[in-house]
Amino acid sequence: MKFVDEALLRVQAGHGGRGALSFRREKFIPFGGPDGGDGGAGGSVYLRARHGINTLADFRIQRAFKAPSGDAGSGNERTGASGEDLYVTVPVGTTVFDEQTHELLGDLTQADDTLLVARGGKGGWGNTRFKSSTNRAPRKFMPGLPGEKRELRLEMRVIADVGLLGLPNAGKSTLIRAVSAARPRVAGYPFTTLHPNLGVVSAGPNRSFVMADIPGLIEGAAEGAGLGIRFLKHLMRTRILLHLVDVAPPDADADPVRDARAIVAELRKYSPELAQRERWLVLNKLDLLPPAQGERQCRAIVRRLRWKGPVYRISGATGRGTRELIFALMNRIEELDAAAASARKDREADLEAESAAAAAGPAPAPVRPARRRPAARPASAQRLE
Q1: For residue 327, what is the enclosing H or E element?
Q2: What domains appear along the chain, each with residue ranges and CATH number?
Q3: Average pLDDT for residues 367-380, to the nearest whole number?
Q4: How far apart are the first and last CA of the chain?
Q5: At residue 318, what are phi and psi to the nearest 5 degrees?
């Protein structure tokens, strides 16, 4: 199936049913009175995230979704049936925007997350609702309210723990093939990767993380050059970025340090928040250089970049250094998970303390002790004086 990470669709909630105009007429009941029932409510439209869907390509075929309307009310104060809610299945990691106002409506990051995008209309009142002591035979009823109508823009952002960043042909696809079961296309020309690829990396029993490979960036990508700027949004959900640098570029005039700085500049133009994300430097393709020359090249790159973060020297083609990189990433991800769990527990404890304090009410005012009067002197002592 073709990879599609953006889609436009129209959603229409159901209209509310019309209220009924009816009067009770039965044998031996001379004063029946109004008995028109209310209309049923229209169905609402929800988006629901599901695993197993990796693209928004289905919305290129069906772009309009409409929930059923409610039925009209009837006599004997019978309310019309409500329209069933419509659930539209989307991939996990879908971000929903209102196309007209550009408002962010929701972010579906977990399976079974549900988002209301169009609310159904309320049913109209029947004439029974308008009965009063001064109006015994009302002939008034209300039509149902219309359901909401919206144009939505869906953006799918892959959810991964580690994202690969670098120039075309930096070896990102080769690395993800070496450490996971993903099999992206690998070739010797730029822009081999045309859409993101995900791979599950195993670091032992019950220890794994997800790695994302996106199309490579080039200088000027923020102005529309190349393909990678379209897919940088997929790195927004990652926790660690691996900046791959080719230590042996095929072009003799290429400068790995200049190219690395250009990538960082494009990253800042796209999102300052993403530029501040934790980033590791990965020097790749060491198998193309003799060991001594490769070590000198790596030291020169780190020194010229003035890099202070983690540095790993690998070869994606031969697997050299990839095992150490995997375990280091796994340990760091577990540290981040533990820190996030601790912060979540602290927030839950604070919320419980606040709710308990609110339930207990204001603290009672302190009671001031009563002043004690001095004891009266016994009469015998007064006589002795």
Answers
A1: helix 322-360
A2: 6-128+138-156 (2.70.210.12), 162-335 (3.40.50.300)
A3: 61
A4: 115
A5: -100, -10
